[in-house]
Design brief:
- It is a single chain.
- By secondary structure, this protein is an alpha+beta fold.
- Helix content is about 35%, strand content about 15%.
- The structure holds iron/sulfur cluster (SF4), FE3-S4 cluster (F3S) and FE2/S2 (inorganic) cluster.
Length: about 250
């Protein structure tokens, strides 16, 4: 059965904005993105929103719904009671371009800083051979849809823009972990993880894991193992001695 929902949507741009109220019909089975599209079609043709697949796979429609970082296309209207006001605001950790669209280029800059996959010398494309058992650990991280909800949620940058230069964020900790656990990768990213990507700033609050729509266990399966690998390297007596001698 349909009903009219009360929506409160943030409208504005980089210079500022405000929440605006709308009353809008909802049909059975709809998701928040359907309602945003209906708003565009019937009341606010200039409402800016980024989306693509409407299937939870492109990672474009990230926003904050009643303060919770979520994908709009995967948030069913049945989550809310009919008389509940549904507030939709843009991701808070990134600069607003307009309405619900933010500038997420921070993430692309961080992605470029991570040393890429480095296969053993002499092994050409098409010659990679791996056993399924050897890729099982890192395969989970390949599910990432780059929605950046984890990035938006992590307190290290959510309220502290000044930490951004020193912190890559959870999405990129799983990328580093994925490469570190890759059976054919030969690069060592452990020092970079600590010193350049800010792994040490993560204090394992696990908020990133809670919001991941792909259910990736970011903290337990990527961040904590990476922290352990960094510690192992630092306190390995041979590595320690080598570092000491190199610094002389
Ligand atoms: Fe989104 Fe999860 Fe990937 Fe983070 S790890 S960007 S929350 S899919
Ligand atoms: Fe941030 Fe996740 Fe660590 S929320 S503090 S990266 S566990
Ligand atoms: Fe693609 Fe929502 S529109 S994840």
């Amino acid at each position: 059965m349909g009903y009219d929902a009360q929506f409160r949507v943030w409208r504005g741009d980089a210079d500022g904005g405000a929440l605006e109220d709308y009353s809008i019909p909802v049909n059975e089975g709809e998701v928040v993105l359907d309602i945003i599209h209906r708003l565009q079609a019937t009341q606010t043709p200039d409402l800016a929103v980024r989306w693509n697949c409407k299937a939870g796979k492109c990672g474009s429609c990230s926003a904050e719904i009643n303060g919770q970082p979520r994908l709009m296309c995967m948030t069913r209207m049945s989550t809310f009671t009919e008389d509940e006001v549904v507030t939709v605001t843009p991701l808070r950790a990134f600069p607003v371009i307009r309405d619900l669209v933010t500038d997420v280029s921070f993430n692309y800059e961080k992605a470029r800083e991570i040393p890429s996959f480095t296969p053993p010398p002499g092994l050409g494309p098409g010659e990679y051979r791996m056993q399924q058992i050897d890729v099982e650990r890192s395969q989970e991280f390949r599910k990432c849809i780059e929605c950046f909800l984890c990035q938006n949620t992590c307190h290290v940058i959510r309220d502290h823009d000044d930490n951004k230069p020193a912190f890559s964020g959870p999405r990129f900790f799983i990328r580093v972990a994925e490469l570190e656990m890759h059976p054919l990768d030969t690069a060592d990213r452990r020092d970079a993880a600590q010193e350049d990507f800010g792994l040490g700033l993560c204090n394992i609050t696990k908020c990133c894991t809670e919001v991941c729509p792909e259910g990736i266990k970011i903290t337990d399966n990527a961040i904590i193992p990476m922290k352990e690998r960094v510690v192992d390297r630092r306190y390995d007596p041979i590595v320690w001695l080598g570092n000491k001698l190199r610094r002389r």
